[in-house]
Amino acid sequence: xxxxxxxxxxxxxxxxxxxxxxxxxxxxxxxxxxxxxxxxxxxxxxxxxxxxxxxxxxxxxxxxxxxxxxxxxxxxxxxxxxxxxxxxxxxxxxxxxxxxxxxxxxxxxxxxxxxxxxxxxxxxxxxxxxxxxxxxxxxxxxxxxxxxxxxxxxxxxxxxxxxxxxxxxxxxxxxxxxxxxxxxxxxxxxxxxxxxxxxxxxxxxxxxxxxxxxxxxxxxxxxxxxxxxxxxxxxxxxxxxxxxxxxxxxxxxxxxxxxxxxxxxxxxxxxxxxxxxxxxxxxxxxxxxxxxxxxxxxxxxxxxxxxxxxxxxxxxxxxxxxxxxxxxxxxxxxxxxxxxxxxxxxxxxxxxxxxxxxxxxxxxxxxxxxxxxxxxxxxxxxxxxxxxxxxxxxxxxxxxxxxxxxxxxxxxxxxxxxxxxxxxxxxxxxxxxxxxxxxxxxxxxxxxxxxxxxxxxxxxxxxxxxxxxxxxxxxxxxxxxxxxxxxxxxxxxxxxxxxxxxxxxxxxxx
Length: 510
Ligand code: NAD
Known about the structure:
By secondary structure, the chain is α/β, with parallel strands linked by helices. The chain is 38% helix and 21% strand. GO terms for molecular function: methylmalonate-semialdehyde dehydrogenase (acylating, NAD) activity. This is methylmalonate-semialdehyde dehydrogenase (CoA acylating).
């Protein structure tokens, strides 16, 4: 039985009206399990109208009351962690344990957003001039939109919605059409937590829905995460239409492995960071850069041994290290890149193509693939594969390793493995990448710092979560006030005792 999914608008499930649907697959079986409606422009406009009407009601909640709704939401999600993780895994294909991590990392940003009463405090300068005080306040933008990728269907919507809601905005989420069920359930839980209807909406769709959001003047800000070409398109279109935009794109994250590193530890970490979630993470390590031939040979031996032991299986099998890719197009893309790597002259150490999984013979599985002697001119080095493929690029020294990371067009995450503090410190200072791990392979910053890549991994100037997110979702108003004296003496209201400013000269605070 194929389920028919809905939109979530004004606190209710609403059936799709466009007549267009996308297929949601069970990646373990390679079968369609649901149909998702793809909204028309008119449907998106109706969602925005609904959100616009709801937003002032929500903005009138004081910050502490808004925070309490988010606190209640935290409890509701935690209470149903198991079923949400199973739902997430069934559409995405990541393991249940990893699906719980996806939800948990999203909740951590909700926990951060609960600090809204503190984080929304403005600035105040008493007596900036004679009898003049100046203060600034942060106000919501109005209706804002989030357009999110398939690979973190809980985490990334919550990274956007948490700060947007805490600051008093209404939110329209356009989740990935590949795994929309968790976002729909989160919408129900927001309502149950006390969010007024219409403040958090889910509109399912494809480019038609996205374009409708990008061109509607009532949408004041767009937060996007996905592939780089779409990130750039959304950034350019949103900003050309006068909106704020923060758009995060693809990645090719390097791990520089110094000769003094503990190579057993490094190999363990790289296996998880390279192949976890079938490599479908923007912070996955896809390039290992051992420094020196001896380090490379030793590391390769340890990686090879571990890759052979990996357990690729159904996402609902607790013994699985990683499950299927999200779709058949992903399998074709990865297989194609493996062939390109062979044709380009890279050394294929382990070929993951053609793996079969018992109970998932038609599922979207790809075995772990390991390439050695990959060079910077190769497409498998330059382009994001987004699958379980780890490429080893041998560097002769530290400077060459650093240069590789710096010259790559992507700059999302990077790691260095070393026991030497001086090398690590130099690396952190000079590397041209937004998020750096020192003996940490996936340096996703915790919720109260910000997340964002550099170069073609990020477009816009304010990052996700952390203090930047409160700036992104609010506009600053600065008030300069002057109260004429007189009332407190109970005398007649008169002019200020001080000299009257010359109205024809720009005011200065002498
Ligand atoms: P995607 O770019 O295909 O889709 C992302 C969103 O954009 C989806 O909601 C989709 O419906 C929409 N979209 C797709 N094509 C569009 C078009 N032509 N016009 C308008 N909207 C369109 O990305 P994906 O495959 O869902 O996710 C994987 C990508 O996301 C990878 O490149 C990965 O690196 C990246 N990613 C980046 C980060 C980060 O923080 N930098 C985090 C997670 C994922």
